[in-house]
Design brief:
The chain is α+β, with helices and mostly antiparallel strands and 83 residues long. Helix content is 22%, strand content 33%. The longest helix has 10 residues. It is globular. It starts with a helix and ends in a 7-residue tail after the last helix.
Length: 83
């Protein structure tokens, strides 16, 4: 989950973010962070519509290469190595 400090940095800089919701690139949301609470983030899209999204999604700068949620899930579900 994205932290308040990361969201505040995006809001203050006005940097465009990409919200990755699933493995389909066309479902990504791009826009500017406007506000947030404990569970949701408000993103203003280029057409000025505002979208309310879960904080559990992947938030990253729009100019960076897209990270897949499946890759992130694989990283967190790897069993601990047995020694």
């Amino acid at each position: 989950m994205i932290t308040d400090d990361e969201l505040d940095a995006y809001r203050v800089s006005g940097e465009k973010v990409r919200v990755v919701r699933d493995d389909i690139r066309e479902n990504d949301i791009r826009g500017i962070v406007v506000a947030w609470d404990d569970e949701q983030v408000l993103i203003r899209r280029p057409n000025r519509n505002v979208v309310k999204l879960s904080r559990s999604y992947i938030y990253q700068p729009s100019k960076e290469e897209r990270r897949s949620p499946l890759d992130e899930m694989d990283d967190t579900t790897q069993p601990a190595s047995e020694e």
